[in-house]
Amino acid sequence: MKKILILTACIGALCAAAPSFGTDLAGQPVKVKAAPLPVAAPIIDWSGYYMGANGGWGTSHNCWDFNGITSEGCHNSTGGTVGGQIGYRWQIFNMVYGLEGQGNWADFRGSNVSTAFPTDTVGTTTDAFGLLTGHIGYAFNAVLLYGKGGAAVTSNTYYVNSVATGTELGKNNDVRWGGVLGAGAEVSLTPNWSAGVEYNHLFMQRSNISFPAALGADRAHQDVDLITARLNYKFGWPFAR
Q1: Which among 17, 62, 121, 148 would be 20 to 30 A from 100, CA to CA?
Q2: Which among 134, 150, 147, 140 has a CA at the least distance from the CA of 203?
Q3: pLDDT in tens, 53-76
Q4: Keywords of this protein's UniProt record, alphabetized (predicted)?
């Protein structure tokens, strides 16, 4: 009987204390964790040395004039190209300046039947070209838009074949210098890697081509259009400005 009375008294005391204990809990301040501060997007710095590879398509527009006077017609030599580039860029605020050297193997081939000598086919093959250019561009953080201009050189083979048999009647080679203008867009993929696409137009000087005496000589004019995809690796650690 005594144990029942003690248990009843304890339960009563506990029930009486519960409201005040709940009040004490309600009065405690609630700790709320602060939201994390937003992280600023990294700013890409395009400055530094880089090298890479490129590949794509090109066409060489060639017009021949017999002895520099009589037109033999024009043809487009088209085909693929692959090569590499190396350069350096400086970034000042959003402006980006650079110098680049590029060398490519090419396989641009084309021909036409001579309008002056219908029994002959005249053809041009461009097997390599090089560019040495200056760049100026504007960086939208990870996207770089730029223009370029400078010197160009092409390596070419010229031939005259018989229309009837396809037999080679004459052949000559030359290395021709000229100028180039172009534009491109490049996107930073990682701090060191970037990829882009580029268009270039080459304005090549006219060239005199000599063949065996029976065929005489021609004066050839050449323009080249190139579209290439590029992949570059920039050396060194990138630094946010």
Answers
A1: 62
A2: 150
A3: 999 999 999 999 999 999 999 999
A4: Cell outer membrane, Membrane, Signal
Question: Given phi > 0 = left and psi -120 to 50 = alpha, else beta, which region is 186?
Answer: beta
How much of the chain is helix, strand and coil, in % rounded to 5?
A: 10, 65, 25
Number of Cβ atoms within 10 Å of the Cβ of 164: 9
Q: Does pLDDT of 7 surpass 60?
A: no
CA pair distance 83, 128, nearest whole angstrom? 9
State the Cα angle at 65 between 106 and 149, rounded to 5°: 45
Residue 109, pLDDT > 90, answer yes
Distance (Å, whole) CA 80 – CA 77: 10
Cα angle, residue 116 at apex, residues 175 and 176 outer, rounded to 5°: 10
Work out the number of other CB atoms within 10 angstroms of the CB of residue 189: 12
Residue type, 20: S
